[in-house]
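It is worth pausing here to work through a concrete case rather than discussing structure prediction in the abstract. The textbook approach is simple: state the sequence, then state the predicted structure, then interpret. We follow exactly that order.
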Amino acid sequence: MRKQTHIKQTRITSNSAGRLITLFATSLALLAGPSTQATNLTWDADPSNINAQDGGGTWDTITNTWWTGVANALWADAATNNATFGVSNGTPGLVTVSGGRTAGLVTFNAVTNGTYTLGGSGPLALSSGFTLNESALVSVPLSLAASQTWTVATNKSLTISGTIAMPSAVTLSLASGGTINLSGGNNQLPANVNLNIAGNVILELGSSSQLIAQLTANNNMLTGKVQGTGGGALTVNGPADLRIGGTASGKSQTLDLSGLAAFTYTAPANTFSVGGQISG
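Step two, the predicted structure:
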């Protein structure tokens, strides 16, 4: 944390006996540096105009393409900083993530027409995940720095085509009623991910096979789906039991796996139990 030191000096002078005596009283004021409170910034493709503007550009730390609500600012890499794209006043485009960037939550809001794409070499490290009120494409490599939620609104989609890494095992929760497309090939998610279906979301694997460590579903949701249009398959291979059908008395779960070419649970020391409804 950066601190600034302010020195206040009080000078007392005496000429008694022909001597000049100077005394200094010094006080130190330590001012706290930047707050750790979350900062919400909105992408601004044209800082020359007041307020945020939709459009493409480069996500770096040297260009003031972020609107605070009052003025433009530089991006600072921090897990407490949240990035929002989409202000419904123009056409979105490609936002190139230049170098490794760090953010908490990335949100895509409505645009006039078209779709935002996050590209570039990155990687982009996320600690809180995505919220999509509008469809978006993400091709930049991702690093999941902590357990997080990807929330996609009904009739909207999040397409991830880049690589996905995790420094350690995390829980990835998929929520709301939209579609999440993993289009980056086999095992795009790391094999030690714990996948939680937290809403009526559709996870689309396409023609790819995906290995995960654990699969869970929230209680009392309607129907979550994992499908593989084109022959995709899902394998759960981890240290925990797999239970679908409510994990508490009076609770229910519905998980639709009928769109997969194959679903495999492989854990010889554990059990797979179905107490609610499962199709596939």
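Step three, interpretation. The chain has no helices and 29 strands. The radius of gyration is 26 Å.
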